[in-house]
Amino acid sequence: MNVNRALPPPWSSVGDRLRERGLRWTPQRRTVIEVLAACDGHITGADLVERCRSRDMSTIPSTVYRTLDVLEELGLVRHGHDANGREEFHVLPAQEHGHLHCSRCGATWEIGEARAWAVAEALRAADGFEIDIGHVTLVGRCQDCADGVADLPPGSTRD
Fold it and tell me: Mind listing the pLDDT tens digit for each residue in 69-89?
């Protein structure tokens, strides 16, 4: 790892922001930031630990997860959960969004902010329940799978 390599914004200010919170800017934390800066979209904590350890074997899971907690407070990551309940992190979340997951083919995609808030508003209006849209993964069947297995029992496959 080249510790003199410049990080792109907004990652370039993380060292200073951590120090402002009384945290040290260690080589291991820098490794976490470098890996996240190279990510696009989502990453699980386990994947992040693995990528960090491939760069610096002295990076331990507790450092990765504590750094993720602070980065979430700074708005640079946001944690959520996939269809199996596994925690994942949204890197540089541009907007609030939820996810759709097809239980048959395994495809997962994002629901844009407007559609996600429409679901949230429907629940609030009907039940007074306010959801954290970033934690929402709706599980069902995508259109292709629903069209192809509509007459088959759940868990069946097409011929």
Answer: 999 999 999 988 888 888 889
Q: 89: which strand partners?
A: 43, 79
Token pair, residue 43, equals 């990453």
CB distance 72 to 87 below 8 Å: no
Instruction: Using CB atoms within 10 Å of the CB of residue 90, give its burial: 0 to 12 exposed, 13 to 18 middle, 19+ buried.
Output: buried
Q: Which domain holds residue 134?
A: 98-149
18 and 86 share a domain?
yes
- CA-based angle 23:134:140, to the nearest 5? 140
1-22: b (≥16 Cβ within 10 Å) or e: eeeeeeeeeebeebbebbeeee
Q: In this structure, what DSSP letter does residue 106 have?
A: -
Question: What total of structural domains would you count in the chain?
Answer: 2
